[in-house]
Amino acid sequence: MGSLKLDYTRYLTYAEIEAALREFAASHPDLCRMYSIGKSYEGRDLWMLELTNRDTGPADEKPGYYIDGNHHAGEVTGSAVCLHTIDYLLANYGEDATVTRLIDNIVFYVLPRVSPDGSELYLTTPYMLRSSVRAWTWPEPSNLDGLVPADLDGDGNILQMRVRDDETGDWKVSEQDPRLMVRRGPDDIQGAFYHVYPEGRIKGFDGVEVKMAPGKWGLDLNRNYPMHWKPETGVRGSGPYPFSESETRAVGDFFLSHKNIAGALSYHTSGGVILRPFCTEYDQKMAPHDLQVFKAIGERGKELTSYPCISIYEGFTFDKQRPSAGSWIDYTYDYLGIICYATELWDINAQAGLPKRGMLDLMQLTDKQREEDGLKLLKWNDEVLDGEGFVNWHCFEHPELGEVEIGGWLPKTVRQNAPGKLLPEECSKNLLFSLAHASTLPKLALPKAEVAAVAENTYRVTAVVENIGYLPTSGSVKAEQNGVADPVKVEVILPEGGKLLHGKAQIELGHLPGRSGGARASKRKVEWIVSLPNQTSVTIKASATRAGVVRRIVEA
Amino acid sequence: MGKVPYNRAKYHTYAEIIELLNQWQAAFPELTKVYSIGKTYEGRDMWLMEITNSATGPADDKPAYYIDANFHAGEVTGSAVALYTIHYLLENYGECENVTNLLDTKAFYILPRVSIDGSEMYLHTPYILRSSTRLWPFEDEQDGLHAEDVNGDGFITQMRVQDENGDWKVSDQDPRLMVQRGPDDMGGTYYRVYMEGTINNFDGVEVKTARPRWGLDINRNSPAHWDIDSRQYGSGAYPFSEPETKAVGDFLISRKNIAGAMSYHTSGGVHLRPMCTAPDDKLPGRDREFYKAIGERGKEFTGYPHTSVLEGFTANRDNPLKGVFMDWVYEHRGLLCWSTELWNVMAKAGVEKTDFHSNMKKTPKEREADALKLLEWNDKELNGEGFLPWTAFNHPQLGEVEIGGWKTKYVRQNPPEKYLEDECHRNMQFTLVHANALPELGIRKLKVEPQGDGFYRITAAVINKGYLPTSASDMAARINVTKPVAAQISGEGISIPVGKDKIELGHLAGRSEKKVEWLVQAATGTRVTITAQAERAGKATLEVVLQ
């Protein structure tokens, strides 16, 4: 194992990420290129690192594997895994067989931070936001009354406020642990009850009603992609129109201009689950081959990360009438036919020893079960985090509500992201899944290429083109159905004076299945009869946009 | 012992119920009213008891909880729970804080028996019938086997007849138990098993089961999703065609303060809820959450699971139950309504609880094991008296038969009387959970600010102290069946120079509040009354003197 350059027990700001990428590129000019793929809403460059061994061929002649992080501003664990992946690949190139094989044969495109403006706000202020800092929706949210989250006591965190109200309070203090707030039961008539609100100020307070103001930053970049996009009335945060945001537009254009990408992974938090398509359909609507591939690669992911792999629609969508349409995964799979995953990193529940529950089961938990879960989480906090993940309730004189108590879980680096000391492990296990997935990409080879004389100056050129990857050269059946991946082409290139006696020099072979295609033959034989009066050396070139380019020079 | 002697281990006849209601009314005049809401098919009055502390306001001004029982004639456990609930509420008023608070702030409408005619037949004769005694859909006797107490022992049980083509055989574990003959089971002794009865117009060969004389199911006679008899067995000629269902329906419509409901059935030990014809994801708003919270809390008392009829109690979703009362109460009246199937004899016998769908899938072997446990329980707990041994009998039409089997009424369909009090107490508690969750209006944070020249700015918060919204459900708000909250100001000689004296606030979510504000012109010292009212959340008033 080579040693890593960066410290993975903390989350990096935009400037630190930029500096780290520059350092990677500068120290490995043969393997890395760093470039901007566009600019964020506030004008920050979206830095991409391209990683391949250029001695074995240019990037665009190799199958590509794309990784991004931080579509959502606060999900900064994703950026950390992206950086850790680059660091790991560079440190282990030439040392580790898998890493070396990958860098020699494919190209990695790593975009550590899609929403740099939002992440900057998240990392440098107490605020939390979904993605972009652009104000959205309509009407202008900042004009509306209600509770606006803010750090009132100046401790740097926006926690929760509990306000005693024995008549209409819907919460009470757990009898098991005074830190834990539990739901007041439907027939719970007498006792000490509380309202629980996010820490914040109330704009336009009438002295009675506390309602939440609409969020100022209502955009969700991961609903702004064009496939199945719906306006705000159908999908919250989807933006005014598909690719309305410069960040998503840049990612979308990058995929369109890098047709070699055949696998993709997007990092989110949290929950500890590897999500796969569809977002908007049941599994039965998926081509059986693709479903089998998603499950097989996903199963490897579970072995490596312990995170189960589930369909977003079937296992992660509570209201089937309102799926998460217009997401990145809709664009990459439903449209581009790229086998892709979105990992929800960091599973605080697993850390605390809670049973693994599906999202739909979580929604069904009873108040009693939620209390038990809450107690286990607090116990974990006390034992593993020395109690530092939970801020004890403390009195505060609220400008609108009077006497309140502020306290609760640290939202950013305990609930939404891994605490620093647990981050390295989160990174290292998840990057292994990306390498496993990257190892499945289609890959063209020419296991046989011959030139044999059939008459004077006349030769038979024979080539066998094979896909030695796991995935088909199209990337998926979906890609073939959508017609978005160029087929395999094989070409004979003749020396000067050479002449093809029949047919075409370049033959379209359609797509070749990979090992995932089962019994279907993954290789094809091609023949030409050529006249070679001068030299007898010919070049065979096989290419497919998602399976790379391979050349062989053969002599008679 | 309370003021009125009440036997908790007994199924009461109609006359006994009337006597009890009268005694309770005489003993607790300030808490009760008794009146008839209509007459049955045979002309019996349907007596209902209204319970609330009249000193804190009339029932109409309070959110109310409705309880009925015995839509189905034989399900007399329901009546027992209803009567027990009356007994418990009355005897504990002023003693138990929860009961006192409930009767001070809420009203109960309790109808102990809906299908009185049918229950009278059930309690006084060997017959078992579904609901009404009206002959329907045929007024004449149909051909085929009709249930009768052939041997005159007072019970209608079963008849077994030896037959080489019979589909049943005697269990080799217990000679009382009949088990299904297997598909490749040859060369043994086999039986046909019929219900005990006689065959109308018998041709000497074919024994087919006739449709019962009393073919109505008045729990399929409500308007929501009602369908004709050929598609929904027993549904009646048209919705509310039966005097009993019409009386109940009219009562629920007339009492606009009813905000929650329970309708008791037997058996199975499960709290059923709507919807019968649509899946849970069609429940509007937070109703599913409300049902879950109340059901989970109620389950702590009864141990019974809670489920929607379609999700957890319907074998074939393409043929759901239609015209069911609770669907009407929920979908047309917008009230969270439960229908508890009281009494789970299998659980008592130690059979592991499984849900309805798993039960349907049990193999013949598993069913036999369950039945053996039940017989074992009968021997141990009931001295074997729940099962009548097979006894030879010369049947007038079938010749030599044996008659025997379970005493259905007070073993399987209803608990043996010694278990009744426990069943009643637990289930009553379930309804108190729901009753405690009803919406309830209040007024607080009243402030009077003199603005000079006889003007006063008056502000207050109208609160819903209850767990449920003032509409009582999100369905009610969606179908707009109940008036929302209004706040009104009144006082001698006051004038309102701007706005209105009555402010409509819409519905209030459970445990929430909204602000009201008036500018009032009045003389100093004027007494002003503020009233907040909603049909299902009661009425709150607060008075203040302008200074």
* Residue share in helix of chain A: 25-40%
Number of strands of chain B: 23
| Largest beta sheet: strand ordering of chain A | 1-2-4-3-11-14-12-13
Instruction: State the end-to-end CA separation of chain A.
Output: 45 Å
Helix share, percent of chain B: 25-40%
Layout of secondary structure:
The complex is a heterodimer of chains A (556) and B (547).
Chain A: H1 14-27, E1 32-39, E2 45-51, E3 64-69, H2 77-92, H3 97-105, E4 107-111, H4 116-124, E5 146-149, E6 160-164, E7 171-173, E8 181-183, E9 194-198, E10 200-203, H5 246-257, E11 261-269, E12 273-276, H6 288-305, E13 309-311, H7 312-316, H8 328-335, E14 339-345, H9 348-351, H10 359-364, H11 367-384, E15 390-398, E16 402-409, H12 411-416, H13 423-438, E17 444-455, E18 458-467, H14 477-482, E19 488-493, E20 499-500, E21 506-510, E22 523-531, E23 537-544, E24 548-555
Parallel strand pairs in A: 3-4, 3-11, 11-14, 12-13
Antiparallel strand pairs in A: 1-2, 2-4, 5-10, 6-9, 6-16, 7-8, 12-14, 15-16, 17-18, 18-22, 19-21, 19-23, 20-22, 23-24
Helix pairs in contact in A: 1-2, 2-13, 6-13
Chain B: H1 14-27, E1 32-39, E2 45-51, E3 64-69, H2 77-92, H3 97-105, E4 107-111, H4 116-124, E5 144-147, E6 158-162, E7 168-170, E8 178-180, E9 191-195, E10 197-200, H5 243-254, E11 258-266, E12 270-273, H6 287-302, E13 306-308, H7 309-313, H8 325-332, E14 337-342, H9 345-348, H10 356-360, H11 364-381, E15 387-395, E16 399-406, H12 408-413, H13 420-436, E17 441-452, E18 455-464, H14 474-479, E19 485-491, E20 502-506, E21 512-521, E22 527-534, E23 538-545
Parallel strand pairs in B: 3-4, 3-11, 11-14, 12-13
Antiparallel strand pairs in B: 1-2, 2-4, 5-10, 6-9, 6-16, 7-8, 12-14, 15-16, 17-18, 18-21, 19-20, 19-22, 22-23
Helix pairs in contact in B: 2-13, 6-13
